[in-house]
Amino acid sequence: MAGVSNAAERSSAGESRDARTVILGVTASDAHAVANHLIAHSLRDEGFDVVNLGVNTTVEEFFAALRDHPDAEAIVIGSINGHAYEDLLDLPEERAETGIDCPIILGGNLSVGSHKSDDHLRRLYDLGIDHILEDADQIAALLDKLLAARTADDAEATAYAVGEDHHT
Amino acid sequence: MSERTDHGPESGGHHGGDELFKTPELPPLADSIAYIRALPKQTVAEVLRTAKARGKVAVQPRCGVGNQHEQLRLLRALEAGAQPDIHTLTIDAHTRMRRFDQALRGIRECPQDLNGYPLVGHGWIRGRELNDAVRAPIQIRHGSPHPWALFETTLASGFTAFEGGGICYNLPYAKNFPITESLALWREVDAVCGDLAREGIIVDREYFGTLTAVLMPPSISLAISFLEAVLAAREGVRCVSIAYPQGGEIVQDTATLRSIPRLAARYLPETVECYPVLHQYMGPFPRARRRADALILYGALAARLGGATKVLTKTHQEAFGVPDTDANLAGLATTHLAASELLDFVALDEDRVAEESAWIEEEVAEIVEPLLQGGDLLNAIPTAFAEGSLDIPFSASRLARSHIVPARDLSGAIRYLSSGALPFSERTLRRNALQLDDGDGRPPTRLLDRLSRDINYFAYADGPAGP
Predict the structure, then answer these.
(1) Does B6 or A4 have the greater pLDDT score?
(2) In 3-state terms, what secondary structure has residue B427?
(3) Cys-Cys with B225: which of A94, A109, B112, B209 at CB 3.0–4.6 Å?
(4) How many interface pairs between A and B have CB atoms less than 8 angstroms apart?
(5) What is the pLDDT of residues A62-110, one digit of tens each?
(6) CB contact under 8 A, A42 and B320
(7) Does B395 contact A at CB distance below 8 Å?
(8) The pLDDT of residue B11 is above 60
(9) pLDDT reading at B277 higher than 70
């Protein structure tokens, strides 16, 4: 049996899903590792190739990983300690500088205190987070949905390129 | 100790012009020794020795806030309300990571946002103020792979117990801090404790066997703590506490605690005092108060049955965040109740406990003895983590493989579903496989679901785990 994953390890556990790559990590100030391990394992179980950057990962590191893995379908970020907003403040600048436009999915305990308001989510979306999930079990389904949407877009683009009627 | 001092730009008294918050320069070690000798209180080691002699469990809460007056108030409230045997000063995350400037800014601007007491920023004079304010001695608990500045301020403040080690305060707390380096830094801490022991001042050194807090197989917890204790003893440390986190199955928890003195006799010199410590449950806590209180009572009872010398308490607010004073007091009160000798009639099947202990000690031996026989332990440990012959589950550090997969058996005891590259014998592997063989007991489960279920063992009992 393969282990429950290791930080920065690319595992081929599970059947390969034609190299569907996902970048995974926990925000910069956060050392909570357990959920990260479980999500990495679960995605590998689903056949994903997981580049797990582990805990204490800065926005810059996430984007450096994207440059190494330009085929990555998404960046999946976890945050448990309530500091998600502070930890992700560099996101707009990093996106603008790199020009990399890859979906960013966020989940976890996203603010301090046990009472959550929509304001906390809105300011995270304003930073450029594309999707916020309440449950890690939803990640694979969201990735499938994003891939389907992109495949449809690509098919459309290809169809136009070769001058075919894409309705056929 | 001058060659070991660490007055870098971030340690010492150079933090801007505000005289009120200027951190005082450290006093000479001789001054700190004289201060400790003159303290009208026992050291932590003396409290533990007394507790062991009387067959009692010393009780210790957690406690740490950013503001000096709030910290004083909190320590006094806990002492007045529950008479803990040992106090805790939990250190904030900035100080743990040596971000002393951020900690100082926190002290000045928003101490309520710090998640612990910034001892280096407040400085040793304020440390002594805390020490002088309470009868019970104070232990420093933190989680720093690089503890030197904090350790210096600890000694200058007259605190006689310092938790941590080069493995247990690295792998669960840092992503990429070289194990060789953390071991070297903690070796210096131990060497100073050795110097102090020769002066007659015994500093208790506790190892955080809790590691990553959930589903920790007892033998991995004990193996790592004893490796750290062996290294400390070689530097002259005379008092070690081996801390183990309550797993939640009473026979296994009792057996683990009872193994500690036998393992100490096997691996540590006779000159070293060694105390078993239980942390009440460190995994996800139930949200319902009654169930949380029951789990606290269960932990305290496990400590007593297992012969722990000390128990670290939890609170019924555990599932929600940092507890308030009343919750902390309630946790101490419940723990005192369960640790009472009036409950001595509670007994376990001694044959099962003995059998479990024998298994645990065999697993520990299989993990640690190849390393202890190998000679250069300080070099062997980082190599072993790289190869996986030492490993922990759910590591925050990428320097451990985390190929260990723990799981609960039908009784709730924690076993190895996978032991990765741990050097286990066929006998040990077979035994773990048999223990986890559910037969027809449960339907087949995906590994992730099984791990989630086993991690949330107590939290699920009162409904969904929540956030």
Answers:
(1) A4
(2) helix
(3) B209
(4) 78
(5) 999 999 999 999 999 999 877 788 789 999 999 999 888 899 999 987 7
(6) no
(7) yes
(8) no
(9) yes
Q: Which residues pair with B242 in a beta bridge?
A: B207, B276
B141 given a catalytic annotation: no
DSSP B278: E
Q: Tell me how far apart the 2 most distant CA atoms of chain A are, in Å.
A: 56
* Digit-coded pLDDT (tens) for B48-104: 999 999 999 999 999 999 999 999 999 999 999 999 999 999 999 889 889 899 899
Q: Is residue B447 within 8 angstroms of chain A, CB to CB?
A: yes
Instruction: Report whether pLDDT(B13) > 70.
Output: no
CA A116 to each of CA A112, A113, B38: distance values in angstroms, whole numbers, following the listed order: 8, 7, 50
Question: A45, B214: Cβ pair inside 8 Å?
Answer: no
Q: How near does any CA of chain A get to the CA of B391, in Å?
A: 11
With a pLDDT cut of 90, the percent of chain A lying above it is 49
Q: How far apart are CA B189 and CA B192, in angstroms?
A: 5
Q: What is the pLDDT of residue A32?
A: 85
Q: List CB contacts (< 8 A) between A38 and chain B.
A: 448, 451-452
Distance in angstroms (rounded) separating the CA atoms of residues B250 and B256: 10
C-alpha span between B81 and B332 (Å, rounded)? 9
Nearest chain A Cα distance for residue B54, angstroms: 39
Query: For the segment B342-369, what is each residue's pLDDT rounded down to a tens digit?
Result: 898 999 999 999 999 999 999 999 999 9
CA B139, distance to chain mean position in Å, is 11
Q: What is the identity of the amino acid at A107?
A: G
Q: By the 8 A CB rule, do A9 and B415 touch?
A: no
- Calculate how close chain B gets to A43, using CA atoms only, in Å: 10
Look up residue B422 and give its two tokens. 């741990």
CA distances from B321 to B245, B315, B318, B427, B430 (A): 19, 10, 6, 42, 40
Residue B466: alpha-carbon gap to chain centroid: 26
Task: Please determine, for residue A6, whether its predicted confidence score (pLDDT) is greater than 50.
Answer: no
Q: What percent of chain B has pLDDT over 70?
A: 93
Identify all chain B residues contacting A37, using CB atoms and an 8 Å cutoff.
393-394, 402
Residue B255 CB-half CA count within 13 A: 26
What is the DSSP code (8-state) at residue B28?
P
In angstroms, rounded to a whole number, what is the distance separating the alpha carbons of residues B150 and B156? 10
Q: Which residues make beta-bridge pairs with B278? A: B244, B311
Neighbours of A160 (CB within 10 A): 11
Residues 6+ away with beta carbon under 8 Å from B28: none
- pLDDT score at A87: 85
Report percent pLDDT > 90 for chain B: 81
Distance between CA atoms of B279 and B294, rounded to whole angstroms?
A: 15
Give CA separation, B229 vs A147, B44, B204, in Å. Answer: 52, 17, 11
CB contact under 8 Å between B418 and A113, yes or no, is: no
Instruction: Name residues whose C-beta falls within 8 Å of residue A93's C-beta, 6 or more positions apart in sequence.
Output: none
